[in-house]
Amino acid sequence: MSQDYNNPAFKKLLQKLQEESWQLELLISGFAIFGLITAFPEINIAGKAARNDDKLYLSIVLLVASVSCAILIFNLLLHVILRGLWIGALGLRYVSGDIDYDKLNYSQKFTRYLKKNVGSFDRYIARLENYCSIIFAISFLLIFYVLALTFTIAAIAIVITTFLDNETISDSYGPFIGVPLLIFIVFGMLLTFIDFITLGGLKKKKWLSKIYFPFYWVYSKITLAFLYRPLVYNFLDNKFGRRISFVLVPIYIVILIATSFNYKMSNYFNGNMSSNSYIADTNNYEDALDEENFIDKVAINSKVITDKHLKVFMAIYEDFDDYIFTFNEGLKPTNDIRGLDSDIAGNANVSWSKRDSLRQEYIKTLNDVFTIRIDSIDYKSEFIFGESLKGKKGFETYISLKDLSEGKHLLKVLRKRINRDKDTINNYHDRIPFWYYPN
Description:
Blueprint: H1 8-19, H2 21-52, H3 56-96, H4 101-104, H5 108-117, H6 121-164, H7 174-197, H8 206-222, H9 229-236, H10 239-259, E1 298-300, E2 304-305, E3 309-315, H11 319-327, H12 352-369, E4 370-374, E5 377-379, E6 384-387, E7 393-400, E8 407-418, E9 424-436
Parallel strand pairs: 2-9
Antiparallel strand pairs: 1-3, 3-7, 4-5, 4-8, 6-7, 8-9
Helix pairs in contact: 2-3, 3-6, 6-7, 6-10, 7-8
C-alpha cells in the first residue's frame, strides 16, 4: 500500500498517523534527550583528546557529532516543553472549554483587544500543535544542514590536497585541474547559500535558474540533499514553517555567543595559559590529569617531587618526524605514512632488522635534537618511546635529582632548530615549574 501514495486508503492511514504522531514525538524526544545528554560530555572529551593527539579527521567527525548533539538537545527539549504545554492546554479545554470573554466582565476596549489578539483557545491549541510538529521535524533537518556544510568544506579540502598540495602530482597539470574545480565548488557554495537564504530566489528567474542548475545538481550530490529535499520544500511552501526556521537561527547565534562568556578573576591571569617560571598548567603534571585534561607537549609525574629522580614525558605528534628529518635526512622515508592510513597493507617493503635500526637511529637523533635543562644546568636525555599513565604515546626519560637543592625549580625542554640564517639555535619546547622536597 505504501508504494501507491495516491491510494485513498493510504491517505487515510497517513491522516490517522498524523493525528496520533504526538505520542511518537514525545517517545522519541524522551529517549533521544536521555541518550544525547549522556553522550554529549563523552563526545566533547573524545574531541579534546583527538585534538590533543592531532587526529584531524577524528576531531572533525567528533566536532560535527558534538554540534549535532547540541542542536538536537536544544530543539527536543523545546519540543518537549511545548508539547507538555499543549497537553496541559488540552486538559484545561476539557475542564473549562473555550475562553468566554463576556464572563471576564472586562471593559469594551480590553474585550475587543483580547478577542482580536488572543482569540479563541482552540486557535491557541492549534498553534501549539503546529509549533511542536515543526520544531520536531526541523530538529533533524538541521543535522542534515550541518552535514551539508561539513561535506562542502571536505570537498574543498580534498581538491586542495589532491591537486594543489600534492607532491606526487605534476605542477603542470595539478593546478590546471585543481583551480577550476576549486572555483566551481566555492562559487557553487556561495550560490547555494544565496539560494538558501532567499528561499529559492535563484530558482525563480528563468535565465538565472539555467546558470544555477549545474551547481544545484552537483551540490545535491555533495550535500546529500536528495535525502532531505522533500522536507526542505515542505517547509518553504508553508509560511508558518518559514517563520520558525528564521527564528531558530538567531536563537542559535545568541546561544553560541552566550556560551562564549566566562567570568574572569584577574586582568593578568586566566585559565588558558602555558606553564613557565610563574605559571603552572595542570596539563604538565601526570598526577593532576583527569578525563578532561590531557598532556599537551611535556609532562612530569607531579608538581611536588619527593623521589630522587624525575620522570619527563614528551607527547608525540605529527611534526616530530619533521624535527628529526631536519637533522637526519636519511630517516625521511620515500612514502610518508603519517595521517589516516590502513594497517591492512602494512609495511612489507621494510625488513624487521632494517626497521629496528631506523628506529634506533631515530631515537639517537631525537636525543640530539631535544635537551633537558633544570634551571641553568643541562642534563643528558635518554628518551625512549613509551606511554604515559593516561595512555598518551610519546617519549619518556628519567633525570637524577640527587644533586638538586630543595625548593622551586624550572624544567625546560629545548629543541634545536635551524633559523633563516642557517644557524642552529635552541627554542623552548616546553617549560614546567616544580618543587623538589626529597623524602
